[in-house]
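Re: [help] complex structure
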Amino acid sequence: ASQQLVGVVGLEVHAQINSNTKLFSGSPVRFSAPPNSLVSFFDASLPGTLPMLNRRCVEAAVMTGLALNCTINKKSYFDRKHYFYADLPAGYQITQQRKPIAVDGVLTYSYFGEKKRSQMIRKSVQIKQIQLEQDSGKSLHDDDRSQTLIDLNRAVGLMELVMEPEMKSGEEAAAAIRELQLILQALGTCQGNMSGQLRVDANVSVHRPGEPLGIRTEVKNINSIRYLARAIYEIQRQIDAVQSGRAVQNETRAYDSKSVPMREKEGLQDYFMPEPNLPALIVYEDNASLPTGIDPSQAVVVQKIKDRLPELPGVKRDRLVQTYGILPEHSFTLVNEDGLMEYFETLMKTTQREPRKVIGWVTNELLGHLKQRDMSVSQPISPAHLAELLKLQETGRISSSAAKQVFQEMWRSGGKTAWQIVQEQELGLVHDSAQLHSICQKVVDSHPDEVHAVRNGNKKVLNKLIGLVQKETKGRADPVLVKEILQ
Amino acid sequence: EFIRKLWEGLLVQSKPPLTSHFPFPAQIPPDLVDKLERLALVDFRTKQGLECLEKAIRFADQLHVVDTTGIEPMDSVLEDRALYLREDTAVDGGCAEELLKLSRKTVEEYFVVPPGNIPLPKKEERSSMLKHSEL
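Output below.
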């Protein structure tokens, strides 16, 4: 009976389809265009206008479905979902309730374990369905003047993805959404920006394993992956509530500073009804299954879309591991950070060094600096400049500690090459044996006890002497040469 | 096919249809009347109004008599038509000026509406609001 309470998270994702025009009208789609500048009579729901489905949106949904291992329904239907809200002037949203375009998929994702940071945990979540639907307009609430401003530009195509409540923590939910984001971006079906293009709602509840799910709350308006992991602090809130004997209320909690009036849902009688203006949407398996009289350029053919599927993140990671012999967790970091994989691959083309030597520079030094400064990969140090630095280190012109120093300096100076910095700051290794001889002599002369110990066979003390020489030279002495001289 | 079968089924029924095959006459509970009134924005809770609704339901009840076994239900009368798919090329939009002219109130290029949801009137409020709209 004293079994631990665990969290259960289900996600609902609305992904804006990356298309030139809207789902049901020929108005253009453009992010942050002036209000109502991209609105047609249909978008404003004037009487007598009819929906005309955008083929690109259908293909995007099919492609996304295929990438998520869904079954594509050859026949799907549109429905009207009724609610009365000013940014939905028709009084209903056209969606796919009875039979959506894609069902029964699975999304596989990985994340770094909580206890062992280097250990990757691999999980998967079922995708219940992907449905095509029309986005509503946007409301801006002006509380001071007690009015709402309406912009109807946003009536673009959406893919609503429903994930089964199979995740247990915020980390899992965050990792699943990051993987979905990477997949959508690879496909080009959604740009995946979480401040509008990819909107996530979470259903959160707690229960004891084996028992029915607890009462759930909805967390809406989660607008970044970081917030997603945090919004699911809701799990802890509920566990605390249940343990202290309080009940969890079925409610909607907006992850938003301002209060958003919730939509009033009407009863079942007229909430959904079939869309009378759109016949069933038919897609075909391959060209051979096209009935006569159907224009092949008009039809959506699943096989053709399958052939066009690009390299997905999972395949990219496997390829990186195979090609460069790096660890899976490295490939994970490379693919998950915007532009880092491209950076690494460009670098590998310009450098002669072992991938396993290079990867640390990219995933530790470079990424560390980027994260510290909240910057993107494209900005500070070009792959060519880093390749030059790596070459200086490889050929013994600088020590590995100096290399890190040069790297810092390259970052600060913006645009200076590694060699320029090495020369300006005299960071190069000292290979001049005469110079090193005199420094070594000085160290030996001033430390007779240590020299005596070495002579008596204590090899460990030799390292201390080498350290002293390095201190004299600020770490720039060629360690191999110093050892030889001292011996 | 479904419609044809239904139509034939109705034609062969004697007139008036055999009500013995009908389901039991529908009872309309008061809260359902209330809900329908709210959704339809029509007030019909008079004796006459309820009789009219009951007759309408009874009329539709004859559909239950038609044998439709083995026939796939229809979703739309357009179901044998191909859904036309549009090219993803911008050909519309840019009607802001004309559309905003239709709005009673605008601010810059926005339509202005009252804040939030306006809930449908409650039963008590409605009786005074709709007293002139008796059936």
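The interface with chain A takes residues 35-36, 39, 75-76, 78-79, 81-96, 99-100, 102, 105, 107-119 of chain B (CB under 8 Å).
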